[in-house]
## 1
Amino acid sequence: MYVREINKDSISTQQKKAKLLKALGKTLGLIAPACRMARVNRQTFYNWLKSDLQFKDDYQNIVEDSLDFAEATLFQLISNGNAKATIFFLSHKARHRGWSLSASPNGNIAYQKNLNDLESKSDKDLWEIINNN
């Protein structure tokens, strides 16, 4: 009888993990809201992450999927002509070409743009910055 109780708890835990993984998929991997949705304690999530390699792998896949979604959204913004999205992309993927969101210590701002300066610019001004670089 004791063995059945352990198996019953084990199945229940697996169901809770599955429910939490489904919630994590819906929240793009955000832990706190997913735990609330699945009614699983946040610390339990971290315990499962440490103790269950399959759970950890499934969670990491969800995180990667959410990053793919965010990148696709960013590329859509860029293709729609969103200058701020374009500058954001360039500042992260084209640093080797001089794009950076931090100010240059030598005062050279032709290639290094300050994010605060960019926030106040119009799309037309931002496209001029992009085309001049």
Note: Helices lie at 2-26, 31-38, 42-51, 53-79, 83-93, 115-119, 123-132.
## 2
Amino acid sequence: MKLTTVLFDLDGTLLPMDEDVFIKNYFGKLVAKLAPFGYEPEKLIQAIWTGTKAMIMNDGAATNENVFWNTFTGIYGKESIKDMGIFEDFYRVEFQEVRTICGKIDKVDEIIRQLKEMGLRVVLATNPLFPKIATHSRIRWAGLQPEDFEYITTYENSHYAKPNPKYYEEILNSIGVSLKECIMVGNNTDDDMIAGTLGMKPFLMPECLINKSEKDISCFPQGNLNDLLKYIKSME
């Protein structure tokens, strides 16, 4: 079947970063933001991780947003839902400072444009553990615009998370394409390359490789964005 759709991961793929450094900076700024409102740092970080794990284990009964906040308010009490606005303000302001620890791929916007000029649909398949405001910010940090993508996964519109295969199924159902029409581009051998076992074509970008399962990556087509472009053109 002809390739029609390119799915891209974001963090470590279109937006180069060291995940551990990113998380450390992100949590550090979030803790500083919420401390004046009575949130003790260690308990807050644990609550965020517990909410994140709940989203990863989401069975589809609710959006990831609802799963996260149900978990968070289960820890801090129902009244803590009023602090959603503080989180939103954090993503508008302090979170933007985290961009300084991220890299940027030269001419990434040109590669995306070329793919679209080839008639391909372009989707941002980033793990939907962040709200829309944070995801759109990271897209801009990468030198792109949210409008560059036909569909973007966020915690508001997703009922699953990577590496659950149903995460990918939900995307494809939303945009109306089949697995065999798609290529999944990412840097994580577990979260992203699982798409290859489902019937998508996988493409690994190893510059910011995450390979916690220590998989043999030689089996994956791989390279940078220019290599991806050549690989896709070779399929025509």
Note: The beta strands are 5-8, 121-124, 151-152, 182-186, 201-204.
## 3
Amino acid sequence: MILKRILDITASLMGLVVLAPFFIIFAIAIRFGSPGPIFHKAKRVGKDGQEFRLYKFRTMVNNADKQGPGITASGDSRITPMGRILRRTKLDELPQLINVLRGEMSLVGPRPEDPRYVALYSENQRVVLSVHPGITSLASVEYRNEEKILQGNGWEKLYVEKVMPDKLTLDLSYVENQSLWLDIKIIVKTLLSLFK
């Protein structure tokens, strides 16, 4: 959809310009809070199964990906104090506007997943890879507090057997019914969920 791409470019450019002062503040807070880079570049699977690096503000200790799983469960000791604030408010996701501008993501679409979990998708579930992943989706609104759900020793089993399939069902519904109007509704729902 050409109109969707125009909206993505316009909104991501405007967002990056308007949010630039906040990016600087967050960058300083992250750097002083713990040693390491400002951005975390997570490996994710995008449209047509292509891997890309998803930008986030770093919310965990440096090299956290080498110290534990790719999914963060409740009470993860790798999360920094500043990281807790950024995660709770979802502000750590803002650098993904860069991914949108680069054409790797869209404002709205199925959330991009770690390759380790995409390998577990069924043939039907892989249909979500036919569109660009998004910064937000119905699944990300529904599972806004995912970390709180993933508690205890069996959190990864819970994610693979319950949470991930539920999210993929919502994402598949989006792929089948996508429209500019649906995107606008999801963006509004996302903004409203931030103030709950």
Note: The helical segments are 2-33, 81-89, 96-101, 115-118, 138-142, 146-149, 155-177, 180-194.
## 4
Amino acid sequence: MKERACKECKRLTDLEVCPVCKGQTSPDWIGYIRIVNTEESEVARRLGIQTRGRYALKVR
């Protein structure tokens, strides 16, 4: 099954509905970033990410 990205929080998942925010997911996304430490990550702070995981950079 193709990996999908949430249209709301951009978290990557295999499900049709995001397990984190319950938003709809899309199979059409580009690039990803892995957040390991949300407290010390400047990227996570700028993107508003508060939980560790893999996130898409752009979701259509």
Note: The domain at 4-59 is CATH 2.20.28.90 (Rubrerythrin, domain 2).
